[in-house]
Design brief:
single chain; 197 residues; alpha/beta; Rossmann fold; 2 domains; 7 strands
């Protein structure tokens, strides 16, 4: 059975979608650990409630270098088949990206390569989509490389931009798509149907 680690920073709704996909047999995997960059993130509560190892690394207290080193060492110790960034608000250092090359994926709330890169996260993405006049948005699961949101696309799920949409309304629609897209993308990577060239 494949072992995955999920990196989080917040509430863990995407983590929950992954857990549900495992529980209902849609993903043949086990979550080895959930690692949070923020103490007290509700995602850690979700993990503990499911009997999953929950690791708290507070980057604000540790500082960048110490945090990156602690995360790297933990991932090496766990030796997962796949690392899934799920609402993870940190950029991985190059040592971690290199060590787990082709085994790290992220989900982004837009159709990359549009509306990605540094500073494009959360509501900023949906505001930018609406300001652009785009008629379609969605989410992208991609391999993680040293470039922010620049890795090869694994899977995209599209949603319409509707007349009168607010950033919040669009965000809710995209979030619904993410719940479907991430488990599907994880399955593709673990089955070898998507590989980083």
């Amino acid at each position: 059975m494949h072992r995955i680690c999920v990196l989080v920073s917040g509430g863990g709704t995407t983590l929950q979608a992954i857990m549900d996909a495992i529980d209902n047999g849609k993903l043949d995997a086990k979550i080895a650990a959930v690692i949070s960059s923020r103490p007290g993130a509700y995602a850690l509560t979700r993990a503990r409630s499911a009997g999953i190892q929950a690791v708290e690394l507070d980057y604000r207290k540790m500082g960048e270098e110490e945090y990156n080193d602690a995360l790297f060492r933990k991932l090496v110790e766990l030796s997962p088949d796949l690392v899934c960034l799920a609402g993870y608000l940190k950029i991985l250092d190059s040592r971690t990206v290199d060590r787990f090359s082709g085994r790290i994926i992220n989900i982004h709330p837009a159709l990359l390569p549009s509306f990605g890169g540094r500073g494009m996260y959360g509501m900023r993405v949906h505001e930018a989509v609406l300001s652009s006049g785009a008629t379609e948005s969605g989410c992208t699961v991609h391999f993680v490389t040293d470039g922010v949101d620049a890795g090869p696309v694994v899977y995209q799920e599209r949603v319409p931009v509707l007349p009168g949409d607010t950033p919040e309304a669009l965000a809710a629609r995209v979030h619904g798509a993410e719940m479907k897209a991430y488990p599907a993308a994880i399955r593709m990577v673990l089955n070898g149907d998507a590989v980083m060239a």
